[in-house]
Structures are given as C-alpha cells and as structure tokens.
Amino acid sequence: MNWDYLLSLFMGGLTRGSIYALIALGYTMVYGIITLINFAHGEIYMIGAFTALIAIGVLTLAGWNGTAILLIAAVAAVVYAAAYGWTLERIAYRPLRHAPRLSALISAIGMSLFLQNYVRMAQTANFLPFPNLIPEFAFLKPVAHIVRSSELVIYAVTALVMLLLTLLVRFTRMGKAMRATAQDRDMAMLSGVDVDRVISLTFVIGSAIAATGGVLIASHIGQINFYIGFLAGIKAFVAAVLGGIGSLPGAVLGGLVLGWTESFFTGYVSSDYEDVFAFLFLVGILIFRPSGLLGRKQMEKV
Amino acid sequence: MKAEFKKSLLAALWFMFLTFPITVVRVNTIERTVAWRWERLIWIGAATFILSFIWRRLLHRKQTGRREVSAGEVRPPSRWKQMAADPRLKGLALSAAALCFLVIPLLFSWNKTILVTNALIYVVIALGLNIVVGLAGQLVLGYVAFFAVGAYSYALLNYHFAVGFWAALPMGAALAAAFGLLLGFPVLRLRGDYLAIVTLGFGEIIRIVLENWNALSFGPSGIDNIPPPGFFGLALTLRQTHIAIYYLMVALTLLTILVVHRLQHSRIGRSWEALREDETAAQAMGIDTTGAKLSAFALGACWAGMAGVVFAAKQKFINPGNFTIWESILVLCIVVLGGMGSIAGVVLAALVLVILPEALRVFADYRWLLFGALLVLMMVFRPGGLVNARRRAYAFEPSAPEKSERP
Questions:
Q1: Which residue among B137, B198, B374 sits closest to A282, beta carbon to beta carbon?
Q2: In total, how many domains does chain A have?
C-alpha cells in the first residue's frame, strides 16, 4: 500500500471538496430561501475567476507584484461576482417570483447559457493561464508532493468562510430575517421582513462565496476558460443535494464527501468516468436518501 | 417621465460598471499587452438605456394585463384569433404549407435542401421533447441522449449485423423508448429542479460512455460509412439520395405531427396536461401519475430515436461530438419559443432557430448568446411561447331568457 499516494488523494479530495463546498453554499442558501436551483450559479463562479484574472493581468503589467495583486484581484472578483449575482436575481428571477417553477428553472438555464457565451464572446473561448500567486510556504517543502501551499490556503479560506457565514446566519438581524424567510416567506413578510431585500442579499452572499472559490481553484489549477462554471456548478449542486439542500453545514459536508469519493475513484478506479461517477452518485442519493445527509425530510405541501 | 429617465440612466451606468472588466479589458499574457476597448462601453451604456425603457414598459404591461384578466373582463378575440379559428382558412394554410415543403427540393439548391432536412430533424426531436416538457411538464435536459441512442443503434446494428435502414428505424425508436423508460424509473419521484439536473447528468453519461467505451462505440473517432437508406432498390446518386431523405423527413414530420396531435387530445394526453398543471391534484383525481410519466418519457424518446436513425443515415458519420448538451438546450429553446404544448409553434420555432443561424452568418456568432437571452425573455414576458397552445374548450352558451321553460 502506497501511503503517500493515498494521502495525496485524500488531500486532493479535500481541495476539490472545499471548492465544491464553497459553490454549494450559494446553491443551498438560494434554495433554502426561494426553492429554486440557481442554474447560473456556476457561471458566477466563472465570472469571478475571469474578473480576478483580468485584474491580475492589468496590475502585473502596471508593475505591481506579490500578494497585493492577489488581494486586490480577489476583492475585485468578489465585488463583481456579487454585483452579477444581484443583477441576475433582478432580471431573471424576480419577475418570475409567482410564476410556475418550470418557468423560473428555464429562465435560470437561459441565464447560464447567456453568461457563458457573454464571457466567450467578450474574452475568448480558449483556456487562459492563471498565475499562481500564492507563495510556496517553506514549511511545506518536505510534504510538497502531498499538499501544496495553495491547497492549504483553500482549506483555511473555506473554514473561515464557513465560520463567518454561520455567525452571520445565527447571530445577526439579517441572518434571522434569512432564516425566517426560508421557513415561511409569507409569514416573514407579515412580520415586517423585507423579503425582496433578503433574497437579493442571499444572492449577493452566495455569489461572493462562489467567486472566492473560483479565484482559489483557478490559481491552484492554473488555467480557466468560459466553460469551467458548468461542470463545477453541477458537481457543487450534487454536493448540496448530498448534504441536504437548504442546510449550510450539509453543503460543506456534502462537498467534502463528494470531493473525497471522486478523488479516490479517479485515483484507484478510472479517471475517464469521473463525471459519470458524480452523476450516478446524485441519482443514488436522490433515490435512496432524497433529503440528503443532514437535511430534514420535507412534506409535500398542497 | 423624469423618474423614468433617471431609472434608465441608473440601469445604464450599472451595466457599464458590470460589464467593464469582461467586455472592455482584454489582457494578452503572452505579448504582455492590454487592449482597452472603450467603445464597447459606450455601446453597452446606450443599449441598456434604451432596453431598460422597453423592459419596464413590458413588465408594466404584463402586470396591468394580468389585473384586467383577474377582474373578469372578457376581451373580444382579436382578428388573428378569429382567423385562426376558422377551419376553412386553417385547412388552406396547412395545405399551402405542405405544398411549400413538397416543392423545396425543386426550387432550391441541394445544400439548402439538406439544411431544411436538418431543420425537419429538429422539428421531430422538438415535437418529442414537447411531449415530455410541453405536455407532461417534466423538464428533461438530457434529451439529446435519446437522439444519440437512435443514431448509434442504427450505426452499430448496421456495422455488426448489417441491419438495413428501414428495419433500424423502428428498432432505433424502440431502443430510445427503452432508454426513456430506463431513465424514467429512477426519476419517477423527482420533480422540477432535481429532474432537470438528473436528466442533464443522464445525457452527459451517455455521451461520456460513448466517448470512452471504445469496444462498443469506437470512441471519439466515431463510426464512418453508415449506409444511406435504400429506396425500393433504386440506384440513386448522392444528390438523389439526399432529396429522397428530404422527402422521407417530410413524411416522418407529418407522421409525428399527426401522432402527437392525436396523443395530445387523447385520454393519455389529458392526463399529461393534468400532470403538468399540478401533480398532486392529478393524483388526487385518480390519474396514474407513474404511468403518465413513464409513457411521456417513452413516447417522447422514441421520436428522438427515429430522428437519430435518419440523422445517422444522412450524415454517414457520427461521433459523440454530435450529441452534446448544446443540442439538448437548442431543442429546449425550440420548445420554449414555440410555446409549450403547441405543435404549430414548435414546428415554426424549429424552422426559425435552425435555419436562421445558417442563413445569416452574423447571427450565427451570437446564436448561443441570443438563445440564452431568449429563454429568459420568453419566460419573463411570454411564458406561453409565441404560439399559445389552445386547449380544446367547450363553450357554454346560456340560452336566451325568453326561451326558458322553467315553470
């Protein structure tokens, strides 16, 4: 048994899983509040990564260097992704708040298609190299074949985001309003919660988190193109369902479990069928445990 | 007016901010240059300014329009609707359309005929998806998988067992229907969003398997030399074969329209529509929702399978690249644009969406961008599609009061 290999698969799975978790948080928050799968969420993640890449490019050519660039690029990515998320909700979902579910879903698919092709036409269809701006930590030298410093940053950021989000939802007024809206939108409205604002804010937060994930993974993998959001979005959705859609800890747990199983599957079984595996996993969960690992069983309301 | 102006100005500024990095800045990391394309920003600002006026106008009209209806006002049917209701005019229009399709190969060049054949293939697929999405209300995103099943079943059956086209046509349909059932069973309990993602996954699974399972499908290199259909043993040239396939497609389209029309107004069609409107209510009314769903999957898939067989015979070469998620989305666009459940709408939309990008190359570049916008706009402003599906209605005419024979 090759322990180093096993350990590197474990760490790789943790990296993947963290990114899935960051994207899945956005899915699960939006689903919790308006019971809609925001199909365009993966695209927001991609737009975040592109914005960061553009910012890095401009700043590098202007003569900046080092960690400052990374921070500015990350802030730009988060701000723009949040802005896109907000606009997306205003255009594609708000007018459909009282429409049948099918309409909102088709509108979401349309938005995803639109954003992908918007980036493709405005930028390029090719893969672009994404510089790795996270410095190699000296203390990681001996284990460099198992875990890289960029991965360490991914773990740390995921943990931090999860912590902040939990604090926000648990202890702030806004968090209370969000929980109330998720439980019963009409009742929340009657109690004086500005539901439209809560929904907008949910999109903003979810998008910002997705963009964080986008920048981190782009800098770890080293290249991006307009299509990265599609598969990542679907995988993250699988993670959200696995954890129990609507549950924040569930999204993180689901992301990690999916990341690990995928990593071990590709490492020991087959890398050709990696994506097939994720989809079969989804079908399996939906059949045997539709409420996910941490989700509550939902009654069908009439 | 001033407030409207201000709103549009704000929208324009917001969109200029939003699109700034991605549309304006283009970094070339190899030559180490940055291209600033400021002129695009002006275009976007101007376009948003105008579009936001139109957007608010339409949204306003939609909301007030809804209020009118809810107030119980009955608007007299417009002239178009009156004309559409006239059976004589309808028959005339249909026969004119049929005649148009019959003479296309005589009037237009060979290439254009092939293009129309392509469009007709999409008409058949879209009518199949229309059963699943438009009538039964089950959003299936991986529909292209059934198309792939049809195409590959002809190609492989022919390669291994020398099965002819005419035998493969029903076999392809049956295999696709079987795959429809195969997909249908596990997803029976799923609704809306989950169903969309799982079926999308199903489509991708089929494509990935076709790409990687070399022993079965010859992998990404695909299958070559698929024979065209034989027509009564005639020796046809390549050109004549294509024209024959065109007429075959016209016949298949007519058959599809006929069958789907009859299905729509049958008992099972009504149960599909009930399922679409409200699954719980349908179940409460005693409709076998399991049967309705499975039959929608199977009957929807079989048309895609048949279209796939014709596609393989027409192309002579297929590979997994023909069956990507984009094809599924194009077909979904067709169904949505045409109006879910409306046969005439779907036929028109398929012709427009397939032929237009080929006819206008400028449009082709922007096609996916426009399709995306189209899906959103259609859902926001005209969820019923361009041609609203009219349901068969029975008018209730109150008898005149003086004739009432109530004691």
A1: B198
A2: 1
Residues in chain B with CB shorter than 8 Å from the CB of A290 are: 189, 194
Residue B216 has pLDDT above 90, yes or no: no
What CATH number does the domain containing B142 carry?
Answer: 1.10.3470
Helices and strands in chain A: count of H runs, count of E runs:
11, 2
3-state secondary structure of B36: strand
Residues B126, B38, single domain; the answer is no
Q: Are residues B184 and B45 in the same domain?
A: no
In a domain, B79, yes or no: no
In this structure, the answer to whether residues B183 and B57 fall within a common structural domain is no
Element (H or E) spanning B25, and its range?
A: strand B25-28
From A142's Cα to the closest Cα of chain B, the distance in A is 32
pLDDT of A302 above 50: no
Q: Is residue B13 part of a domain?
A: yes
Domains held by chain B: number: 2
Q: Which residue on chain B is closest to A280 by alpha carbon?
A: B201
User: Closest chain A residue to B207 measured between Cα atoms?
Assistant: A276
ipTM: 0.87
Q: What is the CA radius of gyration of chain B?
A: 25
Question: A42: which chain B residues are within 8 Å (Cβ-Cβ)?
Answer: none
Q: Give the residue on A whose Cα is nearest the Cα of B214.
A: A272
Quote the CA–CA distance of B209 and B35 in Å, as a whole number: 42
**What domain range includes position B42?**
2-62
Of the listed ranges B41-45, B163-167, B254-258, the one predicted with least confidence: B163-167
Smallest Cα distance from B312 to chain A, Å: 25
- Cβ(B309)–Cβ(B123) below 8 Å: no
Within this chain, do residues B325 and B224 fall inside the same structural domain, yes or no?
yes
- Number of residue pairs across A and B with CB atoms under 8 Å? 163
* Assigned token pair, B323: 């069956």
